[in-house]
Amino acid sequence: MPKTPTGAKRPADVIGNAVHVMRVLTGEADDDAPDDGKDKAAQSMGRKGGAARAASMTPERRAEIAKGAAAKRWSK
After folding, report:
1. Are both 16 and 45 inside the same structural domain?
2. 58 and 30 assigned to the same domain
3. Which residue has the higher pLDDT, 41 or 29?
4. Do residues 47 and 63 both lie within one domain?
5. For residue 56, how many C-alpha atoms fall within 13 Å in the half-sphere facing its CB?
6. Spatial contact of 3 and 10, defined as CB atoms under 8 Å apart
7. Based on the structure, what is the number of domains in the chain?
């Protein structure tokens, strides 16, 4: 049985898949999207932290970090 990118099982045939989508949209069936195991609050805090770090950095420091990352990528 085919799986979605998140690992949920879906019907293999086109008609079965269409029926499943219709049932999900009408509320007859749940769209069983598996939980990725990550804490949603921690994810949102991480996004805020990254933005705050970027905003507080000087352009010179950002360039220094970018040069180090590029050197690491191309060192192979």
Report:
1. no
2. no
3. 41
4. yes
5. 6
6. yes
7. 2
What tokens does 25 get? 């949209």
Query: Residue 18 is part of which domain span?
Result: 1-34
Distances (CA, A) of 19 to 1, 57, 68, 71: 15, 52, 52, 51
- Looking at the fold, whether 44 and 15 belong to one and the same domain comes out as no
- For residues 29 and 52, membership in a common domain is answered with no
Q: What's the maximum distance between 2 C-alpha atoms anywhere in the chain? A: 57
Is residue 29 within 8 Å of 20, Cβ to Cβ?
Answer: yes
Which pLDDT does position 58 carry in this prediction?
Answer: 96
Q: How far apart are CA 37 and CA 39, in angstroms?
A: 7
Q: How confident is the model at residue 73 (pLDDT cuts 50, 70, 90)?
A: very high
Dig out the tokens for 45 from the structure. Answer: 């805090």
pLDDT at position 4 is 67
Select the more confidently predicted residue: 34 or 38: 38
